Amino acid sequence: MLTTLQTAYTDTRAADLAWALGREALPALAVLDLELSGATLQLRLLGASHQVLLEEGDARCSETVACMPGSSTPLPLGAAERIGGLEYEFAARVETLSQGAFAGRAQELLALVADHPHGLAGTFPGSPHAFTAMLAQRYDGRVRWRTWHAYPQEGQLVVTRTSVRRAPRPPGGATARRCREGDAAAGGGALVRGAAG
């Protein structure tokens, strides 16, 4: 599904993106509800990027990648978390492209997501290549989603990949650590702050 987001384009720097787990649902400009083999997934386009809400059985996960005032967790290169009964893995990278290459990549991604039954994309008024796009699937026992955040004025495309699966029961009655907003990302430092210019 492709939509035009009825908001001003204010999320203008890749370096301003932050990552958070466990946030409540934020106001969304477009929403796509999906059922993926027992998992309920909600893809949400925000005025400042994206949020994904996942429920599988009694386990829940919320991922937010957006410009969040006051957030202390910049976008990590990678993260792995145990969230209740789920194992969550996240990875992100920045692609820096020439103006012509950026326009072609934007058109390709928007066409891919717009025609996909599990895809949601939103373009911002005033800039045809400013967009956020999301694509979800169930594969090999995992719920997976990819997102793309386009910053045409910088020639940058922020790409994220997430994979979530039911966690095996911990041995010996150990309890899994629940996700808390602001948890430090495991295995990675900041992705875009000073690293992708």
Protein model, in words:
A hairpin with a 4-residue loop joins strand 11 (142-151) and strand 12 (156-166). This protein is globular. The chain has 1 helix and 12 strands; from the N terminus they run ββββββββαββββ. The chain has one helix spanning 99-114, and strands at 2-4, 18-21, 30-36, 39-46, 49-56, 59-66, 78-83, 86-96, 119-124, 127-139, 142-151, 156-166. Residues 173-197 have low confidence and may be disordered. The two termini are 31 Å apart. With 197 residues, the protein is mainly β. A 7-stranded mixed beta sheet has the order 1-9-10-11-12-8-7, with helices on one face. A 5-stranded antiparallel beta sheet has the order 2-6-5-4-3, with no helix packed on it. 8% of the residues lie in helices and 48% in strands.
Question: Briefly, what is this?
Answer:
The protein is mainly beta and 197 residues long. The chain is built from 1 helix and 12 strands.
Shape descriptor? globular
Which ranges are low-confidence, i.e. pLDDT below 50, for 5 or more consecutive residues?
173-197
Count of DSSP-assigned helices: 1
The tally of strands reads 12
Distance between the terminal alpha carbons, to the nearest Å?
31 Å
Report the structural category: mainly beta
Output the helix-strand order. Answer: EEEEEEEEHEEEE
Strand content: over 45%
Measured as a percent range, the helix fraction is: under 10%
Mean pLDDT: 81
**Biggest sheet architecture:** 7 strands, mixed
Round the Cα radius of gyration to an integer and report it.
16 Å
Oligomer status: single chain
Read across the widest sheet, the strand sequence of neighbours is 1-9-10-11-12-8-7
